[in-house]
Structures are given as structure tokens and as C-alpha cells.
Design brief:
The complex is a heterotrimer of chains A (471), B (125) and C (370). Chain B is an alpha/beta fold and 125 residues long. Helices cover 45% and strands 21% of the residues of chain B. In chain B, strands 2-1-3-4-5 form a five-stranded parallel beta sheet, with helices on both faces. The chains are: A alpha/beta (471), B alpha/beta (125), C mainly alpha (370).
Chain lengths: 471, 125, 370
């Protein structure tokens, strides 16, 4: 019996250590990224593109926006994309077999006419039904195709694109006007850059005026605010931290710039996964490392994409379930990278962290809570330990979230109202009292679903944040 | 001369400079930094001349010009367009709408002033 | 009841709790104070702007001398705002105004401010200081030395900015030295090369001089192939058509370290763009369609597509079965123009027949080259 007890105690301690290590490492990422951001702030201002220079001197970009049943918001989204401040780019809207009036609205508003564009199938995708262009909007290209989901639509866009760089965006992303300019400096820093990710922030609650972001405000709902904290911690600081360590595993599907040739080289996006954004990045790493071609995959904190996040439990749960399934799938596909010296920090730090600290985290967390509570009830561990455990699990998480909010205020500083920052700080604390645990539950279910072979995407109730009547 | 000029340009520093110069010449200048506000003003008041920048986020110069044409907000011949690019199809399309002239950035202030005077005199007596 | 273990744990927890509370309080305190400070600073900047703008206008009207203008720049905010405003105006103006505004950039206050920034730890500050020195004549030796040192900085933004500053020197020797030093660097970003070359060539009154220097650089074995490629690609932009012969010569000779064949490939591409009839001779002479480098074969295929003539059928037949998809497609597209097209196509292996059908369907429409 006492052997059993001892083992239990050891397991308890291991779980404790787990929390300390994971949270501690995350905290390190957050702090490292803080200094990293500070050091290179405003470096993009060095490149001032005046109209004097020929557009051929700078890298041309094809923005690819897959759209599925977005009749409400598609006009606004496309308009805001067309008005980005850059000289040489095109916008490719891929209508992924929408069943509503998305295509009709586009044709009507932008005065589109059918056109002929043949492209060899550099990457696979479902058949294209038609291509549309407009004399009045020469930058716009609309591709109508049979439904095939996001990865498929992106592949169609990649085939149709004419430029060296592609930028994949979500239908509900709102990009800031100088986004592309800011991305450019990465290609200036290293010519071998093949992919760049930018910060994604929560648009809910923000004020949009004249098709642009006017003021950054907090979302109105509890879930919205919690996610605002989450995105700061995970996407702003987390990813910049990984960039600093040169081990970036994922670029958000909501906003990412890729070298078109590189993507085609590795085969484009795959269709049989729900985490196609992460899968692509891992595949790029894998290919370029295997082939020993010098490359860089970056993430920068300057360019910003604002996206609408779900504010109801059902949709959010589905989303997080899907993200977790995607994570599991990608990590499993590239498990050969883990602890493999050939893959540098990617294999020695990133993959293990994502596996232990993200993928099976919900298992350990939930198991941990149950275990400790039971252990305490049955006297395997004393009260002090139980308290310590909850401290480490919850309070340390609070420190982490709070740091993210504080450091946002110290670096990018987007909230115009001080009281919003303080409110956010409160939510940073709240995040760990309930939300984090529910989130673990959702992710656990995602993991289980993955093992069961679930590959569904699910749909989201969109309200259209950048909603103004197409004026 | 007391004529009013509406300047729609998102580049505030340059706009202020242009405004300053024009004030010196006796014009009354109003400046807004985006197309939406510009259209609003044109719906309420009737400026004598419009100086319109092409590359603006939100609503670009061309869209503004088209809306002015559609809503008949002012005489197209009283519109001067500023652009950072060389003459392109976009600018040609604007000329088709009837704008008076186009000036490429960076420009010479005297050049701009001359064109403004020509545009204002264009309707004749 | 209290073991030493418990004491440790209790201490640990209290420590963490204190950290948390301290952090929270720090956040509250910092946010409030920082916001106040920021707002105040913003007001100071706005005030500076309001004061500086009329000063600039008065200067342009000759109501203010340079010295008087300088004397009005009391605070750091004034200096920074003035510099920013001047730059924006200079970028957007031409003619007399621009020249006079440029003169203002030379005042001591700016010089002192940016000299100190040049030695900062922050790359952004250093880069901005370099941009300042790019605007004016650098007479100061110590600054020249620092800029030359920065040309060797591993961070591309800095060596680019420093080079930008140096090539704007009125001293020809400094300019040319800096330009060559930049070109011979191991790893230059193509956008940086484009920008520097464009601006450097713009400094020469006589375009033939600039073209000559560029021609020498292209054949300089110390210039890495990637940089040389950027130089070659920019020739049509610059309009230096007199360099055709240099290009043809380079195509024939190749480059000592032509990694991936990018040197020859770019040459063929640019000569193709220029529709130079001399290209064919060198492609044929060097059997470039049999190059081990995909990039070269691709360039040949694209060239053949553009310059199709029946004589090319032979090499096109070979290229249409190339292992690389892009090469095949371009070659097949070119073959489509041939009279012997169908006969050759029948000779294609089974799996390439569908590609051929696809090409035929698209006909004259462009193929969306990568």
C-alpha cells in the first residue's frame, strides 16, 4: 500500500513540476519576446516607399482570400484589401462554392466580367468554374470554384496568382493598411525568407470607421475579453518568442505571407487536415531542412490583422476542438522531427514543447486536477501540497497572462483607453479561474475526437465586425 | 479671390503645406484626410475646386471621383488629381470622367498653383 | 504539524502570491503613470509640430534665416518633429522649395542629434541616423569611419542604411568605394541591392558612366551571384540597354561560382526581356538546354517560348520531357507554335499527354509563370 502511496505522491509532484515547467517556459518566451520587440520597433520605417520608385524594385504580392458564404461582409473585406497601401499587389478572392449570394454580390459591386485564365495545376484543387476580372478594379481577380474547403481554395488561389509572394487571409480578417510594407523588412533582413506570420488580434469591440480600424477597444462579452488576453499571450508574445528562438512552428491562417515558389515546391496546402496552416509551415521546415536549402520562417509583431472571434460557447468550443485536432494531426505527421538534431531548435525545443505543453496539456491538466483533489481527499498529499498545486496551476498562469497584458502596454500599446488595459488585466486573472479549465476540457475532447478520426470543420456564426453598409 | 478649395489627401504634412501656400494666394482651404469625409463635405457645401489624392486607404481617389460624378456633387472640370504613379489606366479613366488635370507627386508647388488657377478660370465668365 | 517541507512550500506560495500582487499593482501603477507620461509627451510633440510648421513656412518665405530657424528648435521634440516634417515635405516636393528645405537639413542641431544616435544600441536609431546622413554631405571623418564600419554589420538593415548614406556622399571616391564594398558582401537582400543600385546610378549625371560601372560589377568574380543577378535584373528598369554586349559576353563566359545556375538563368531572362537576337548564339554554343541547373533550363524554355523559331524544335522536344514541371510546361507551350507539334507530342510519354492536352486548351493564354 505504501508503495502505491509513494508512487501517487511522486505522480503528484511530477504533475506539479509539469505546471511549473510549462508555465515557466512560457513566461520565458513572453519576456524574451518583449525585449525582442523593443529592440526592433519601428525598424520598418527605414524603408520609405515613395511613388518615385518603380514597382519592380519591390516584391509583388498576391493576396488570396478564400470566401465561403460571406455575402454580408465580403464587399467590405475586399474593399479594405484593395485599399492596402502598397504599389504592386493583386487581390484574389476565391469563392469556394458558396451557396449564398457571395459571388453575385461581388459581380455586381465590382462590375466583374468573365475572363479566361488558364493555369497549369501547380498544386491540386477542385475544379474552377470560372474566373472574373473587372476593368475598373484591375487589382481584383475572382475565382469561382467547386467547394473544397479552405485549403483547397487557397491552392486554387496559389495556382492563379501571378506574383512572387502570396498572402493568405481569412474572409473575416481586417488588415491594417500598411501591413505589406511592414512585412517587407523581413525580406530585407534575410533574402532566404520563405514565410512570415503577423500578429492576429481580436477585432470584436473595436471601432471601425471608413473601412478602417479607428479605435481599439475591448470586446463586450466575457468570452471576447478572455480571448483578447489569450491572443496577446499566445499570438503576440508566444509566437514572437518562438521567432526569437528561430523555431516557429505555425503561422496563422488568418494572415501569413509565403514565397509562392516555396509553397508550390512542397505541394501546396493539404486537404486531409483541419490544421492546414500549421501543417504547411511544418512541411516547409521539413523540406528545406532535408534538402539543406537555407531558409527563414519569421514572425513579426508589427503588421496587424484583426479578426472576429466567436463570442458564444458553442462556436468557440468547436473552434478550439478543431484547432486541437489540427495540432495533433500536424505534430503526428512530423513527429520524426522531435528530438532530432537535424532539426535544430525546432526538434529540440519547439516540437517537444508543443507536444507536452500544448497537445497533451489538457490531458495532464484535467488528470492533474482530479488526481490532486482525490489525493488530498484520501490523505495521500497534505493540504499544503494541494494548495501549492493549485497555486502553481492557477496563480502561475495568472502571472503569465498578466505579464502578457503588461508587456503589450509596454510595447505595441494599441488600447487607446487606459481603463481598457486595466479591465484586461482583470480578465487576465479571470482567465485562469474557470476559462482555462473549460478550455482544457474542449481541447481534451478535440484530442479524443482526433483519435476517433474526426475531420470536420464546422461553421461559424459570423456577425461581421467590420460591418458598415457597403457605402 | 475668395474661392474655396477642398483638399482630400491622407498625407497630412504635405496637405498642410499645400494649404498654407494656397492660403497665401488668397484661397480658403479645407483639408480632410479621407474620401468619406471629403464626400460628406461636398454633399453639404460646394467647394470651387477639389484637389484629390489618388492613393488613400479606405476610399481611394478614383472611387471618390466616381461617386462625385454619379451624385453630381460638383463640376468634374474642377477636380485636380494628385498621384504617386505615372499616368496609368486609372488616371486615364479619371480623365474620361472629365477631371481637369492631374499632377504627379513629387511636384513643384508653382506647377500646382498654375494648374489650380487654370482650373478655376476654365469655366470662363 | 509543520514540517520543514511545509515551511518551504508556504514560503514559496507566499513568494508567488507576492509576485502576483506586485505585478498587478505594477500594472495598475505603470499604466496610469505611463499613460499620463505618454499623453504629456504627445502634447509636447503636438505643440512642437504646431510651432515648427509655421517656422518652416516662414523660412521658405525668406522671413527666417537658417540660424533663426535653428534657434527655435529648443527641445528634442522640436528637433525630431522638424526633421520628420522636413523629410516628408522634401520627399513630396520638387524644385526650388525642395532645394531650400534640403539646406535646412544641414543645421547643426540635426547633425548633433543624429551623430549621437549613430552610436546607439538600438538598430532603429542607428538606421534612422544613417538615413539622415544619406540626406546631407558627410564631411565629418569620424562619421565616415563609423558608417564604413556599419557597412560590415551583420544586420542587413544597418549595412543597407550605412551604404545608403555613403553613396550619397559628394566625394566620388567615397561613393564608389562604398558601392563596391556593398556589392561584394556575401549576402545581400535583393531589395536592398535594387534600392542601392537605383540610387547610386541616379547620382551619375552621365548614365554611361553608371552603366559602365554596373557592367564591371556584373563581371566581377568577387560579387556573389545573387547580387550579380539583382544587378542584371535591374538593367531594363534603369534603361541601360548599352549593356547588352556585356550581358551576352557574360552569358557566354558564365560565372566562376554560379551556384544553382542563377547567374546564367538571370542573364537569359533579361536578354529575353530585351528581345536580344544575339542570345540564341550563346545558348546554342553552350548547349544551355542541357544545363544541370533547373533554373537555366527554365530560362531557356521561357526564352524559346518568346523567341520561337523552327530551329528550336530540337531542344524544345528535349525540354518538353524535362523532370521539372515548369520547364516542361513552358517548352510545350513553345512547341505548340511548331508545325511539328502534334508529331512531337505523340512522342511524349503517357503521363505527359494530359499536360499537353491542358496546354493545348489554354492556347494563347499566359501560363502564370512562377
Amino acid at each position: 500500500m505504501s508503495v502505491f502511496f509513494s508512487i501517487l505522491v511522486v505522480i503528484n509532484i511530477l504533475v506539479l513540476i509539469y505546471f511549473v515547467v510549462v508555465n515557466g517556459f512560457y513566461l520565458y518566451l513572453v519576456i524574451a519576446s518583449f525585449f525582442h520587440i523593443r529592440r526592433y520597433r519601428n525598424i520598418d520605417r527605414i524603408f520609405q516607399m515613395t511613388g518615385v520608385y518603380s514597382t519592380k524594385l519591390y516584391k509583388p504580392v498576391s493576396i488570396i482570400a478564400p470566401a465561403y458564404n460571406e455575402e454580408e461582409s465580403v464587399i467590405n473585406s475586399v474593399n479594405s484589401l484593395l485599399n492596402l497601401k502598397y504599389a504592386n499587389f493583386e487581390v484574389i478572392v476565391v469563392n469556394d462554392g458558396s451557396t449564398d449570394k457571395t459571388l453575385e454580390r461581388l459581380i455586381e459591386y465590382f462590375k466583374l466580367e468573365p475572363d479566361i485564365r488558364h493555369r497549369p495545376k501547380y498544386v491540386e484543387h477542385k475544379p474552377i468554374k470560372g474566373v472574373y476580372t473587372s476593368e475598373r478594379y484591375p487589382k481584383l481577380l475572382v475565382v469561382d470554384k467547386v467547394n473544397g474547403q479552405k485549403a483547397d481554395a487557397l491552392n486554387a488561389g496559389i495556382n492563379m496568382a501571378s506574383n512572387e509572394l502570396i498572402c493568405s487571409v481569412d474572409a473575416d480578417s481586417v488588415l491594417e493598411t500598411d501591413v505589406i510594407l511592414k512585412m517587407l523588412r523581413v525580406f530585407m533582413e534575410d533574402e532566404n525568407t520563405i514565410a512570415v506570420g503577423g500578429v492576429v488580434r481580436v477585432a470584436n469591440g473595436c471601432v471601425f470607421k471608413n473601412r478602417q480600424l479607428a479605435e481599439v477597444r475591448l470586446p463586450k462579452s466575457y468570452l471576447g475579453r478572455i480571448q483578447a488576453v489569450e491572443y496577446l499571450r499566445a499570438f503576440l508574445f508566444g509566437r514572437v518568442g518562438w521567432d526569437y528562438l528561430n523555431a516557429l512552428l505555425i503561422i496563422s491562417g488568418a494572415f501569413g505571407v509565403f514565397d509562392r515558389r516555396a509553397v508550390i515546391r512542397v505541394g501546396g496546402y493539404v486537404h486531409d487536415t483541419v490544421g492546414e496552416d500549421m501543417e504547411l509551415v511544418l512541411r516547409l521546415h521539413d523540406y528545406y531542412i532535408k534538402e539543406k536549402i537555407p531558409y527563414k520562417i519569421r514572425f513579426i509583431s508589427d503588421p496587424v490583422c484583426w479578426t472576429e472571434v466567436p463570442e458564444d460557447y458553442a462556436t468557440l468550443a468547436k473552434q478550439r476542438n478543431r484547432w486541437h485536432r489540427g495540432l495533433a494531426d500536424s505534430l503526428w505527421r512530423y513527429k520524426h522531427m522531435t528530438f532530432n538534431p537535424k532539426y535544430g531548435r525546432l526538434g529540440s525545443l519547439a516540437m517537444p514543447f508543443f507536444f507536452f505543453g500544448e497537445l497533451i496539456a489538457p490531458v495532464i491538466e484535467i488528470f492533474g486536477y482530479v488526481l490532486v483533489i482525490l489525493s488530498w481527499i484520501f490523505g495521500v498529499v497534505n493540504t499544503t501540497f494541494a494548495l501549492l498545486f493549485f497555486f502553481v496551476a492557477v496563480v502561475l498562469g495568472m502571472v503569465l497572462s498578466l505579464s502578457a497584458v503588461l508587456l503589450e502596454e509596454l510595447t505595441v500599446r494599441r488600447y487607446s483607453r487606459g481603463r481598457d488595459v486595466l479591465k484586461l488585466a482583470l480578465y487576465a486573472l479571470l482567465e485562469n479561474l474557470g476559462y482555462r479549465q473549460i478550455h482544457s476540457w474542449w481541447r481534451l475532447r478535440g484530442l479524443i475526437a482526433y483519435f476517433k478520426g474526426d475531420k470536420k470543420w464546422g461553421s461559424m456564426k459570423r456577425r461581421g465586425i467590420a460591418k458598415e453598409k457597403a457605402a | 479671390m475668395g474661392k474655396t478649395i477642398l483638399l482630400v489627401d491622407d498625407d497630412t504634412y504635405v496637405a498642410r503645406f499645400i494649404g498654407f501656400k494656397l492660403n497665401k494666394q488668397g484661397y480658403t482651404v479645407k483639408h480632410v484626410d479621407n474620401g468619406f469625409d471629403g464626400l460628406e463635405i461636398m454633399r453639404k457645401e460646394k467647394p470651387d475646386l477639389l484637389i484629390l489624392d489618388m492613393m488613400m486607404p479606405g476610399l481611394d481617389g478614383r472611387e471618390v471621383a466616381e461617386r462625385i460624378s454619379e451624385e453630381k456633387l460638383m463640376d468634374m472640370g474642377k477636380i485636380l488629381v494628385l498621384s504617386g504613379k505615372e499616368v496609368t489606366d486609372e488616371v486615364k479613366a479619371l480623365f474620361d470622367l472629365g477631371i481637369h488635370d492631374y499632377l504627379q507627386k513629387p511636384f513643384n508647388m508653382d506647377s500646382l498653383l498654375m494648374r489650380i488657377e487654370r482650373a478655376l478660370d476654365a469655366t470662363g465668365p | 504539524m509543520f514540517t520543514p517541507y511545509d515551511t518551504i512550500v508556504a514560503t514559496l506560495m507566499s513568494a508567488i502570491l507576492i509576485v502576483l500582487v506586485a505585478l498587478f499593482m505594477a500594472l495598475v501603477l505603470y499604466t496610469s503613470l505611463h499613460r499620463v507620461k505618454l499623453n504629456r509627451e504627445k502634447k509636447r510633440y503636438e505643440k512642437a509640430e504646431e510651432e515648427v510648421q509655421p517656422l518652416i513656412y516662414e523660412y521658405l518665405e525668406d522671413k527666417l534665416t537658417e540660424n533663426e530657424f535653428s534657434n527655435h528648435l529648443i527641445t528634442a521634440q522640436h528637433v525630431i518633429t522638424a526633421f520628420r516634417t522636413l523629410n516628408l515635405l522634401i520627399d513630396n516636393m520638387r524644385g526650388e522649395e525642395q532645394a531650400r528645405l534640403r539646406q535646412l537639413l544641414a543645421i547643426q542641431k540635426f547633425h548633433r542629434y543624429f551623430s549621437s544616435r549613430l552610436n546607439s544600441n538600438h538598430p532603429t536609431d542607428v538606421a534612422q541616423a544613417c538615413r539622415y546622413f544619406a540626406q546631407k554631405n558627410i564631411a565629418n571623418i569620424s562619421i565616415l569611419v563609423e558608417l564604413k564600419r556599419l557597412q560590415e554589420h551583420p544586420y542587413n538593415v544597418l549595412n543597407y542604411s550605412a551604404t545608403l548614406a555613403l553613396i550619397n556622399s559628394p566625394d566620388e571616391k567615397v561613393r564608389d568605394e562604398a558601392f563596391n564594398a556593398f556589392l561584394e558582401r556575401k549576402e545581400n537582400a535583393s531589395m536592398a541591392v535594387n534600392d542601392i543600385v537605383f540610387k547610386y546610378c541616379g547620382k551619375h549625371e552621365n548614365s554611361n558612366t553608371a552603366a559602365a560601372i554596373l557592367g564591371v560589377a556584373i563581371q566581377n568574380p568577387n560579387v556573389p551571384v545573387n547580387t550579380a543577378s539583382s544587378l542584371i535584373k535591374i538593367i531594363p528598369e534603369l534603361g541601360f540597354f548599352q549593356l547588352r554586349d556585356v550581358l551576352l559576353e557574360s552569358l557566354d563566359e558564365g560565372h566562376a561560382n554560379d551556384d544553382q545556375g542563377i547567374y546564367r538563368a538571370t542573364l537569359i531572362e533579361v536578354l529575353n526581356e530585351l528581345n536580344d537576337p544575339g542570345t540564341k548564339k550563346y545558348i546554342m554554343a553552350n548547349n544551355l538546354w542541357e544545363s544541370p541547373y533547373t533554373l537555366v533550363r527554365l530560362a531557356v524554355a521561357r526564352w524559346a517560348l518568346n523567341q520561337y523559331e523552327p530551329e528550336l524544335d530540337g531542344l524544345l522536344e528535349i525540354l518538353s520531357q524535362d523532370q521539372d514541371l515548369e520547364v516542361r510546361i513552358n517548352a510545350q507551350k513553345a512547341l505548340y507554335k511548331s508545325e511539328k507539334a502534334e508529331r512531337i507530342a505523340r512522342g511524349l510519354p503517357e503521363d505527359l499527354q494530359t499536360e499537353w492536352e491542358e496546354i493545348k486548351r489554354s492556347g494563347a493564354a499566359d501560363v502564370g509563370f512562377l
